[in-house]
Amino acid sequence: METFQQPKIIGYRQLTEQEVELMNECKALAEQVGAFVRKLDGLPHALGGPRLIEIEPGKFEPAIDQDWVATGTTQLQQGFMALTRAIAQPTTF
Description:
The chain is mainly α. The protein has a domain at 17-44 and 55-88. 52% of the residues lie in helices and 10% in strands. The protein has helices spanning 17-41, 66-88, and strands at residues 52-56, 59-62. It has a two-stranded antiparallel ribbon.
């Protein structure tokens, strides 16, 4: 791996090669999770309405509760941010 000297950012330090690999792995996992969330967002929505959507007469399909998708998205983003901070260990608030 090529060494890159990051410009000094207040509160951050130069990461080790292992930390960079962990950070990249974390970012890749976050992208996979983000793709799954976008997949859920593309399914029929149920915002406080019926849990089944009639897609054609007599044919129903389960709907996704977008309130919970939004909650899950926020909490997953917070989790990945926490993991990133765990690796980088910034010294500032």
